[in-house]
Amino acid sequence: MSSVLASLLILCASAVAAPMWALPVFYQEAHEEPFEDPFWVPQELIAFARPRVALGAGDRAKAEALLRTLLWPEELGGLGIQYSNDRTRSVNEVWLERKANCLSLTFVYVMLAKQLHINAVFGESFEAVNWSRVGDVIRVEKHMVAVIRRHPLEDLVADFLPQTRDRYGNYFLDLITNARAKSLFYSNSAVEALIKNDKETAFEKITKALEVDPTSSQAWNIKGVLEKTYGNITSAMTSYKTAIRNNPNNVVAMGNLATLYVMEGLYEEAARLRAIESNLRKRDPYYFAFLASEAIEKDDWVNARKLIQRAIKIHPRDADFYVTLSHIYQAQNKPNEAIDALNKARNYVASDKTEKLDSLIREYSAGLASR
User: Fold this and answer.
1) Structural domain of residue 289, as residue ranges?
2) Residue 306 and residue 157 share a domain
3) Which of 282, 315, 348 marks a domain boundary?
4) The pTM is what?
5) Left (φ > 0), alpha (ψ -120 to 50) or beta: where does 99 sit?
6) Cβ neighbour number for residue 216 with a 10 Å cutoff
7) Which of 20-34, 167-181, 201-215, 293-307 has the lowest mean pLDDT?
8) What are phi and psi of 5, to 5 degrees?
9) Do 135 and 25 fall within a single domain?
10) Which of 48, 113, 269, 328 has its CA 20 to 30 A from that of 288?
Protein backbone atom coordinates (compact mmCIF):
# COMPACT_ATOMS: atom_id res chain seq x y z
CA MET A 1 0.00 0.00 0.00
CA SER A 2 1.50 3.36 -0.98
CA SER A 3 0.69 6.91 0.08
CA VAL A 4 0.42 9.61 -2.56
CA LEU A 5 -0.66 13.24 -2.85
CA ALA A 6 -3.32 14.24 -5.36
CA SER A 7 -4.33 17.67 -6.57
CA LEU A 8 -5.65 19.48 -9.71
CA LEU A 9 -9.29 18.55 -9.27
CA ILE A 10 -11.59 18.10 -12.26
CA LEU A 11 -15.09 19.27 -11.31
CA CYS A 12 -18.00 17.28 -12.64
CA ALA A 13 -21.59 17.62 -11.34
CA SER A 14 -21.71 15.68 -8.07
CA ALA A 15 -18.27 14.27 -8.79
CA VAL A 16 -14.76 15.62 -8.71
CA ALA A 17 -11.65 14.30 -10.30
CA ALA A 18 -7.97 15.18 -9.53
CA PRO A 19 -4.04 14.27 -9.71
CA MET A 20 -1.36 11.47 -8.90
CA TRP A 21 1.38 7.82 -11.23
CA ALA A 22 1.50 3.60 -12.93
CA LEU A 23 0.39 0.21 -11.95
CA PRO A 24 -0.61 -2.55 -14.38
CA VAL A 25 -4.23 -2.47 -15.47
CA PHE A 26 -6.32 -5.37 -14.20
CA TYR A 27 -9.23 -6.79 -16.17
CA GLN A 28 -12.35 -8.80 -15.39
CA GLU A 29 -11.85 -11.09 -12.42
CA ALA A 30 -12.93 -14.68 -12.93
CA HIS A 31 -12.84 -16.15 -9.43
CA GLU A 32 -16.55 -15.42 -8.79
CA GLU A 33 -19.66 -16.12 -10.81
CA PRO A 34 -20.29 -12.95 -12.84
CA PHE A 35 -23.63 -11.95 -11.33
CA GLU A 36 -22.42 -12.72 -7.81
CA ASP A 37 -19.31 -10.56 -8.16
CA PRO A 38 -20.15 -6.96 -7.13
CA PHE A 39 -17.34 -5.71 -9.39
CA TRP A 40 -18.48 -7.61 -12.49
CA VAL A 41 -18.95 -5.20 -15.44
CA PRO A 42 -21.69 -6.19 -17.91
CA GLN A 43 -20.68 -6.18 -21.57
CA GLU A 44 -23.55 -3.81 -22.38
CA LEU A 45 -22.04 -1.17 -20.07
CA ILE A 46 -18.62 -1.58 -21.66
CA ALA A 47 -20.15 -1.28 -25.13
CA PHE A 48 -22.03 1.86 -24.08
CA ALA A 49 -18.98 3.58 -22.61
CA ARG A 50 -16.24 2.55 -25.06
CA PRO A 51 -17.10 4.86 -28.00
CA ARG A 52 -17.73 7.81 -25.67
CA VAL A 53 -14.44 7.42 -23.83
CA ALA A 54 -12.46 6.67 -27.00
CA LEU A 55 -13.10 10.24 -28.18
CA GLY A 56 -10.79 11.54 -25.46
CA ALA A 57 -7.17 12.23 -26.43
CA GLY A 58 -4.93 11.40 -23.47
CA ASP A 59 -5.50 10.11 -19.95
CA ARG A 60 -7.06 13.27 -18.57
CA ALA A 61 -9.51 13.63 -21.45
CA LYS A 62 -10.51 9.96 -21.16
CA ALA A 63 -10.96 10.31 -17.38
CA GLU A 64 -13.24 13.30 -17.90
CA ALA A 65 -15.12 11.52 -20.70
CA LEU A 66 -15.77 8.57 -18.38
CA LEU A 67 -17.15 10.94 -15.72
CA ARG A 68 -19.48 12.49 -18.29
CA THR A 69 -20.56 9.06 -19.49
CA LEU A 70 -21.65 8.10 -15.99
CA LEU A 71 -23.20 11.36 -14.82
CA TRP A 72 -24.54 13.29 -17.78
CA PRO A 73 -28.28 12.84 -18.45
CA GLU A 74 -29.38 10.46 -21.18
CA GLU A 75 -30.38 13.29 -23.52
CA LEU A 76 -26.73 14.41 -23.49
CA GLY A 77 -25.44 10.92 -24.18
CA GLY A 78 -24.71 9.81 -20.62
CA LEU A 79 -26.12 7.16 -18.32
CA GLY A 80 -27.78 9.74 -16.09
CA ILE A 81 -26.86 7.91 -12.88
CA GLN A 82 -28.67 9.49 -9.93
CA TYR A 83 -27.28 9.73 -6.42
CA SER A 84 -29.11 7.36 -4.06
CA ASN A 85 -27.91 6.40 -0.61
CA ASP A 86 -30.59 3.79 0.06
CA ARG A 87 -28.04 0.98 -0.35
CA THR A 88 -24.63 0.11 -1.79
CA ARG A 89 -25.14 -1.35 -5.27
CA SER A 90 -22.93 -3.62 -7.34
CA VAL A 91 -21.59 -2.41 -10.70
CA ASN A 92 -24.26 -4.39 -12.53
CA GLU A 93 -27.04 -3.03 -10.30
CA VAL A 94 -25.91 0.53 -11.00
CA TRP A 95 -26.05 -0.20 -14.73
CA LEU A 96 -29.56 -1.67 -14.46
CA GLU A 97 -31.05 0.84 -12.03
CA ARG A 98 -29.07 4.01 -12.86
CA LYS A 99 -28.72 4.70 -9.12
CA ALA A 100 -25.63 4.72 -6.91
CA ASN A 101 -24.18 6.08 -3.70
CA CYS A 102 -20.64 7.49 -3.62
CA LEU A 103 -19.06 4.10 -2.99
CA SER A 104 -20.96 2.40 -5.82
CA LEU A 105 -20.08 5.21 -8.24
CA THR A 106 -16.43 4.74 -7.36
CA PHE A 107 -16.71 0.99 -8.00
CA VAL A 108 -18.30 1.59 -11.41
CA TYR A 109 -15.73 4.20 -12.36
CA VAL A 110 -12.67 2.09 -11.47
CA MET A 111 -13.89 -1.24 -12.81
CA LEU A 112 -15.21 0.25 -16.05
CA ALA A 113 -12.00 2.24 -16.50
CA LYS A 114 -10.00 -0.98 -16.28
CA GLN A 115 -12.09 -2.50 -19.04
CA LEU A 116 -11.43 0.55 -21.21
CA HIS A 117 -7.63 0.33 -20.74
CA ILE A 118 -7.52 3.30 -18.37
CA ASN A 119 -5.04 2.72 -15.55
CA ALA A 120 -7.40 3.08 -12.58
CA VAL A 121 -7.08 1.94 -8.97
CA PHE A 122 -8.88 2.57 -5.68
CA GLY A 123 -7.66 5.08 -3.11
CA GLU A 124 -8.61 5.93 0.46
CA SER A 125 -8.42 9.62 1.34
CA PHE A 126 -6.76 10.77 4.57
CA GLU A 127 -8.20 14.25 4.07
CA ALA A 128 -11.90 13.37 3.88
CA VAL A 129 -12.37 11.47 7.12
CA ASN A 130 -15.85 12.30 8.38
CA TRP A 131 -17.04 12.09 11.98
CA SER A 132 -20.81 12.13 12.33
CA ARG A 133 -23.40 11.64 15.04
CA VAL A 134 -26.44 9.36 14.68
CA GLY A 135 -28.41 9.69 17.91
CA ASP A 136 -26.05 8.77 20.71
CA VAL A 137 -23.66 7.01 18.34
CA ILE A 138 -20.61 8.76 16.86
CA ARG A 139 -19.36 7.24 13.62
CA VAL A 140 -16.07 7.60 11.78
CA GLU A 141 -16.46 7.39 8.00
CA LYS A 142 -13.51 7.06 5.65
CA HIS A 143 -13.74 8.08 2.03
CA MET A 144 -12.85 6.11 -1.10
CA VAL A 145 -11.90 7.68 -4.42
CA ALA A 146 -10.87 6.47 -7.87
CA VAL A 147 -7.29 7.17 -8.96
CA ILE A 148 -6.18 7.36 -12.60
CA ARG A 149 -2.45 6.62 -12.48
CA ARG A 150 -0.21 8.48 -14.91
CA HIS A 151 3.28 9.42 -13.70
CA PRO A 152 4.68 11.15 -10.58
CA LEU A 153 2.63 14.15 -9.42
CA GLU A 154 0.16 13.90 -12.30
CA ASP A 155 -2.31 11.25 -11.17
CA LEU A 156 -6.02 12.05 -11.41
CA VAL A 157 -8.64 11.46 -8.71
CA ALA A 158 -12.35 10.99 -9.34
CA ASP A 159 -14.11 11.85 -6.10
CA PHE A 160 -17.85 11.22 -5.90
CA LEU A 161 -19.41 13.30 -3.13
CA PRO A 162 -23.04 14.22 -2.43
CA GLN A 163 -23.94 17.70 -3.62
CA THR A 164 -24.14 18.92 -0.01
CA ARG A 165 -20.43 18.27 0.63
CA ASP A 166 -17.57 20.26 -0.81
CA ARG A 167 -13.80 20.10 -0.48
CA TYR A 168 -11.26 22.86 -0.93
CA GLY A 169 -7.97 21.08 -0.27
CA ASN A 170 -5.70 18.58 -2.01
CA TYR A 171 -5.74 14.84 -1.37
CA PHE A 172 -3.35 12.60 0.51
CA LEU A 173 -4.24 9.02 -0.31
CA ASP A 174 -3.45 5.41 0.37
CA LEU A 175 -3.82 3.28 -2.74
CA ILE A 176 -5.78 0.14 -1.89
CA THR A 177 -6.22 -3.19 -3.64
CA ASN A 178 -9.31 -4.48 -5.39
CA ALA A 179 -9.69 -6.97 -2.55
CA ARG A 180 -9.74 -4.23 0.09
CA ALA A 181 -12.26 -2.25 -1.96
CA LYS A 182 -14.49 -5.30 -2.46
CA SER A 183 -14.32 -6.04 1.26
CA LEU A 184 -15.61 -2.51 1.87
CA PHE A 185 -18.55 -3.26 -0.45
CA TYR A 186 -19.53 -6.28 1.61
CA SER A 187 -18.91 -4.41 4.89
CA ASN A 188 -21.23 -1.60 3.79
CA SER A 189 -23.84 -4.13 2.74
CA ALA A 190 -23.56 -5.83 6.14
CA VAL A 191 -24.20 -2.56 7.97
CA GLU A 192 -27.17 -1.78 5.73
CA ALA A 193 -28.64 -5.21 6.49
CA LEU A 194 -28.03 -4.76 10.22
CA ILE A 195 -29.83 -1.41 10.20
CA LYS A 196 -32.82 -3.25 8.72
CA ASN A 197 -32.45 -5.85 11.48
CA ASP A 198 -31.67 -8.53 8.87
CA LYS A 199 -28.97 -10.20 10.95
CA GLU A 200 -28.74 -13.29 8.74
CA THR A 201 -27.89 -11.24 5.65
CA ALA A 202 -25.56 -9.05 7.70
CA PHE A 203 -23.58 -12.10 8.84
CA GLU A 204 -23.46 -13.44 5.29
CA LYS A 205 -22.08 -10.14 3.98
CA ILE A 206 -19.52 -9.62 6.71
CA THR A 207 -18.32 -13.21 6.27
CA LYS A 208 -17.72 -12.45 2.59
CA ALA A 209 -15.93 -9.23 3.52
CA LEU A 210 -13.49 -11.17 5.69
CA GLU A 211 -13.07 -13.92 3.10
CA VAL A 212 -12.02 -11.30 0.56
CA ASP A 213 -9.79 -9.39 2.99
CA PRO A 214 -9.07 -11.13 6.33
CA THR A 215 -7.00 -8.13 7.45
CA SER A 216 -9.85 -5.61 7.26
CA SER A 217 -10.08 -3.84 10.59
CA GLN A 218 -13.42 -2.34 9.59
CA ALA A 219 -14.94 -5.75 8.80
CA TRP A 220 -13.73 -7.27 12.08
CA ASN A 221 -15.29 -4.36 13.99
CA ILE A 222 -18.63 -4.88 12.23
CA LYS A 223 -18.44 -8.61 12.97
CA GLY A 224 -17.96 -7.71 16.64
CA VAL A 225 -21.11 -5.58 16.54
CA LEU A 226 -23.05 -8.47 14.99
CA GLU A 227 -21.75 -10.96 17.53
CA LYS A 228 -22.81 -8.62 20.32
CA THR A 229 -26.37 -8.39 18.95
CA TYR A 230 -26.59 -12.18 19.35
CA GLY A 231 -25.17 -12.01 22.85
CA ASN A 232 -21.93 -13.72 21.83
CA ILE A 233 -19.79 -11.52 24.06
CA THR A 234 -16.61 -13.61 23.91
CA SER A 235 -16.74 -13.76 20.10
CA ALA A 236 -17.48 -10.04 19.94
CA MET A 237 -14.45 -9.28 22.10
CA THR A 238 -12.28 -11.46 19.88
CA SER A 239 -13.51 -9.63 16.78
CA TYR A 240 -12.85 -6.20 18.30
CA LYS A 241 -9.38 -7.27 19.41
CA THR A 242 -8.63 -8.53 15.90
CA ALA A 243 -9.84 -5.22 14.45
CA ILE A 244 -7.47 -3.33 16.77
CA ARG A 245 -4.58 -5.68 16.02
CA ASN A 246 -5.07 -5.07 12.29
CA ASN A 247 -5.35 -1.31 12.83
CA PRO A 248 -4.03 -0.02 16.17
CA ASN A 249 -5.64 3.36 15.43
CA ASN A 250 -9.20 2.01 15.12
CA VAL A 251 -10.84 4.14 17.80
CA VAL A 252 -14.30 2.79 16.92
CA ALA A 253 -13.30 -0.80 17.73
CA MET A 254 -11.57 0.44 20.91
CA GLY A 255 -14.73 2.18 22.05
CA ASN A 256 -16.81 -0.90 21.32
CA LEU A 257 -14.42 -3.19 23.17
CA ALA A 258 -14.24 -0.81 26.14
CA THR A 259 -18.04 -0.87 26.34
CA LEU A 260 -17.98 -4.67 26.51
CA TYR A 261 -15.29 -4.56 29.20
CA VAL A 262 -17.56 -2.36 31.31
CA MET A 263 -20.50 -4.73 30.73
CA GLU A 264 -18.36 -7.60 31.94
CA GLY A 265 -17.08 -5.68 34.95
CA LEU A 266 -13.53 -5.38 33.56
CA TYR A 267 -13.19 -1.75 34.60
CA GLU A 268 -9.40 -1.50 34.63
CA GLU A 269 -9.14 -2.93 31.12
CA ALA A 270 -11.88 -0.52 29.97
CA ALA A 271 -10.10 2.46 31.55
CA ARG A 272 -6.79 1.59 29.85
CA LEU A 273 -8.50 1.26 26.48
CA ARG A 274 -10.45 4.50 26.93
CA ALA A 275 -7.20 6.31 27.68
CA ILE A 276 -5.65 5.05 24.43
CA GLU A 277 -8.82 5.92 22.51
CA SER A 278 -8.87 9.43 23.99
CA ASN A 279 -5.22 9.99 23.14
CA LEU A 280 -5.78 8.92 19.54
CA ARG A 281 -8.75 11.24 19.20
CA LYS A 282 -6.66 14.13 20.47
CA ARG A 283 -4.32 13.54 17.52
CA ASP A 284 -7.14 13.42 14.96
CA PRO A 285 -7.79 16.88 13.46
CA TYR A 286 -11.03 15.69 11.86
CA TYR A 287 -12.44 14.77 15.24
CA PHE A 288 -11.95 18.36 16.41
CA ALA A 289 -13.42 19.63 13.13
CA PHE A 290 -16.47 17.45 13.88
CA LEU A 291 -16.74 18.90 17.41
CA ALA A 292 -16.40 22.39 15.91
CA SER A 293 -19.29 21.68 13.52
CA GLU A 294 -21.44 20.57 16.45
CA ALA A 295 -20.58 23.78 18.31
CA ILE A 296 -21.49 25.81 15.20
CA GLU A 297 -24.91 24.12 15.09
CA LYS A 298 -25.46 25.39 18.66
CA ASP A 299 -24.20 28.91 17.74
CA ASP A 300 -21.42 28.37 20.26
CA TRP A 301 -18.91 30.37 18.26
CA VAL A 302 -16.29 30.70 20.99
CA ASN A 303 -15.90 26.94 21.44
CA ALA A 304 -16.23 26.37 17.70
CA ARG A 305 -13.24 28.66 17.09
CA LYS A 306 -11.15 26.97 19.78
CA LEU A 307 -11.95 23.52 18.39
CA ILE A 308 -11.21 24.31 14.74
CA GLN A 309 -7.98 26.01 15.81
CA ARG A 310 -7.00 22.76 17.55
CA ALA A 311 -7.66 20.95 14.26
CA ILE A 312 -5.47 23.49 12.45
CA LYS A 313 -2.68 23.08 15.01
CA ILE A 314 -2.62 19.32 14.32
CA HIS A 315 -2.98 19.65 10.54
CA PRO A 316 -2.15 23.20 9.38
CA ARG A 317 -2.33 22.38 5.66
CA ASP A 318 -6.03 21.51 5.36
CA ALA A 319 -7.77 24.35 3.52
CA ASP A 320 -11.22 23.32 4.74
CA PHE A 321 -10.28 24.05 8.34
CA TYR A 322 -9.38 27.65 7.47
CA VAL A 323 -12.64 28.06 5.54
CA THR A 324 -14.56 26.86 8.61
CA LEU A 325 -12.56 29.30 10.75
CA SER A 326 -13.46 32.13 8.36
CA HIS A 327 -17.19 31.35 8.72
CA ILE A 328 -16.82 31.41 12.51
CA TYR A 329 -15.03 34.77 12.44
CA GLN A 330 -17.67 36.18 10.11
CA ALA A 331 -20.41 35.03 12.48
CA GLN A 332 -18.52 36.79 15.29
CA ASN A 333 -18.48 39.99 13.21
CA LYS A 334 -14.72 39.83 12.69
CA PRO A 335 -14.35 40.31 8.90
CA ASN A 336 -10.62 41.09 8.98
CA GLU A 337 -9.89 37.80 10.74
CA ALA A 338 -12.27 36.00 8.36
CA ILE A 339 -10.42 37.37 5.33
CA ASP A 340 -7.08 36.42 6.87
CA ALA A 341 -8.31 32.84 7.37
CA LEU A 342 -9.44 32.65 3.73
CA ASN A 343 -6.08 33.92 2.52
CA LYS A 344 -4.43 31.14 4.53
CA ALA A 345 -6.80 28.63 2.96
CA ARG A 346 -5.64 29.83 -0.47
CA ASN A 347 -2.15 28.51 0.31
CA TYR A 348 -3.46 24.94 0.43
CA VAL A 349 -6.54 25.03 -1.76
CA ALA A 350 -7.08 22.82 -4.81
CA SER A 351 -6.45 24.77 -8.00
CA ASP A 352 -10.05 24.73 -9.17
CA LYS A 353 -11.33 26.19 -5.89
CA THR A 354 -9.35 29.46 -5.77
CA GLU A 355 -12.06 31.45 -7.52
CA LYS A 356 -14.65 30.34 -4.97
CA LEU A 357 -12.39 31.50 -2.14
CA ASP A 358 -11.64 34.77 -3.94
CA SER A 359 -15.39 35.35 -4.23
CA LEU A 360 -15.77 34.90 -0.48
CA ILE A 361 -12.87 37.28 0.15
CA ARG A 362 -14.49 39.90 -2.08
CA GLU A 363 -17.80 39.43 -0.28
CA TYR A 364 -16.22 39.88 3.15
CA SER A 365 -14.15 42.85 1.93
CA ALA A 366 -17.23 44.55 0.51
CA GLY A 367 -18.98 44.15 3.84
CA LEU A 368 -15.99 45.67 5.59
CA ALA A 369 -15.80 48.62 3.19
CA SER A 370 -19.50 49.43 3.65
CA ARG A 371 -19.12 49.96 7.39
Assistant:
1) 285-369
2) no
3) 282
4) 0.73
5) beta
6) 24
7) 20-34
8) -105, 135
9) yes
10) 269
Average pLDDT over the chain, rounded to an integer: 81
Q: 59, 219, 55, 81: which is closest to 146 by C-alpha?
A: 59
Cβ atoms within 10 Å, residue 11: 14
Dump pLDDT digits (tens) for 133-171.
544 445 556 677 888 877 656 677 777 765 444 555 555
What's the CA gap between 125 and 142, in Å, rounded?
A: 7
**310 CB neighbour count, 10 Å cutoff:** 17
* CA distance to 54, 212, 214, 223, 250, per residue, from 235 (Å): 52, 20, 16, 9, 18
DSSP-derived letter for residue 6 is E
Number of domains comprising the chain: 3
Using DSSP's 3-state secondary structure scheme, residue 144 falls into strand
Same domain as 298, residue 234: no
Strands 120-134 and 99-100, by their bridges, are unpaired
Alpha-carbon distances, residue 158 vs 4, 19, 78, 125, 181 (angstroms): 15, 9, 17, 11, 15
